[in-house]
Design brief:
Structural class: alpha/beta
Strand content: 5-15%
Bound molecules: BIS(adenosine)-5'-pentaphosphate
Shape: globular
Number of strands: 8
Largest sheet: 5 strands, parallel
Radius of gyration: 17 Å
Strand order of the largest sheet: 2-3-1-4-8
Number of helices: 9
Distance between the termini: 7 Å
Amino acid sequence: MDAATTTTPAVLILLGPPGAGKGTQARMLEDKFGLVQLSTGDLLRDAVAAGTEAGKAAKAVMEAGDLVSDGIVIAILRDRIAEPDCAKGVILDGFPRTTVQAEALDGLLAATDQKVSAAISLEVEDAEMVTRISGRYTCAGCGEGYHDVYKTPAVEGVCDKCGNTEFKRRADDNAETVASRLKAYHAQTAPLIDYYQNHGVLKRVDAMGKINDIAGDLEGIVGEVVS
Ligand code: AP5
């Protein structure tokens, strides 16, 4: 599918617990379909690094593995989704995470006669998430994601995508914080599976398999939505 042939901008949501593979799959879909990945985790980490008011408020909350307030996250998402590049369609990675955020998204989209095209739930067992998160690292240059075991660069120490040789690990990828993030997911985000089921846009994907197999399943779903 060539993005130029897409008639209605798609609004896709990747739902799933920490470490489910949302970021990994969103980047692959972005490359394949010409959509824009919007990760509220990345936007918040940028705000923390830039020392903005939102970033200062979010820093300790993120380090504890709790959810940042709806007001801050909705404002960040609202500003980013209004940028011109998002007119070609977006993949929301890590947003919404609460019912308040889901309703705010519906309202934002309704203002421009859009709605959620599909909410894809990546389903993974809790123990697997811990394994995935504890081995995760990313390229410091382009943000491409890797894993100590599951996804290593073709040439050790060199990013496949941009050739950078520096990598980083996230401050919140430690056992204690992961437990809090999982708890927050089950209490506040998992109810969105029913929310999108009730809106008739939920798709479930078994995300326990290999990265490329899951990508194939997602491409089938997204291909139907953007065609
Ligand atoms: P965020 O950055 O969104 O983190 P998260 O939801 O915890 O998700 P992750 O990025 O940890 O996992 P992922 O599903 O993207 O997995 P990945 O593809 O990297 O949020 C961080 C914090 O910001 C939150 O805790 C909260 O404080 C705040 N926040 C963000 N959004 C918010 C919101 N809307 N409201 C309130 N607060 C918000 O994969 C993980 C690893 O596994 C990688 O190493 C990858 O290579 C590997 N992997 C991926 N798929 C597979 C596979 N199939 N098999 C084997 N390995 C795999």
